[in-house]
ATP-dependent DNA helicase
Amino acid sequence: SGKLPTEKEIQQRVARSLILQINCVVKLTQQMRTEDTRYLQLLERLRQGQCNYDDYELLLTRVVGQPSVNSLHESPWDKAPILVFRNEVRTQINHKAAIQNAAQVNCAPIVCVAQDTCKGKPIEDPILRKKLLELSDSKTEHLSGLLPLVPGMPVILTQNIAIELGLINGMKGIFRQLVYQADSVSTDALSNIFPNNTQYVYRPLYALIEIIRSKIECNLENLQPKLVPIPIMEQTFRIDISDILPKDKKPKPNRKAMLSIKRRALPLVPAYSITTHKSQGQTLMSLL
């Protein structure tokens, strides 16, 4: 047909060729993370759907009762992440928490706005632009349309940046500073989610994130220890825009009107709230 493959199709072909090269599979059976034998046995039964009443009673011992918690504003609960099942709920909680924290430290919220293009041209249609910015990052290759940032807030990397340095998807850090083009800031209201004093940054360059568990052995020039610059990243995703097209341009029933969007944004999300699947493999001393 002469049609050039999309970036995603190319990645899928490369992935398939890599999978076909696998000629050996090693099954790991020894548990190296959980040292509590009784809890490990519970987990093994849970995987098989064979939990018993003793397992239930063991789990009850890990629930913090109301009498033992005076306030969620006290340590360690003021830093405990809120676990939820859905990305949309996580995003709403994170937005509200960022706004609240900005008010507590008496600073205006900063929101990084993703740079979206279609066929190399910026998105100018206001309805389409609003739809794109409000999409869940689970539908945009994990690059947020609107990313609120407050100094000191917990964040999570959403892309693999440098695997050998420990800068991987799911790594936790603390946001310290945003570096951006000075002429790319606006206070014009872009979303009713954020307060009127919000500063919208349209051309961020990188974010300085404190990552305690990074494998960078030396201090980067002019930066404090464990402070890592996280750059803008680019991803391509496809979206159905049938719902915002005029009636005379809507596709036929059971058809979709797909657009390929290229997005540039910081590969970060706030971590006041995280999804249950994102928490897997993490060591969390307390959670809500």
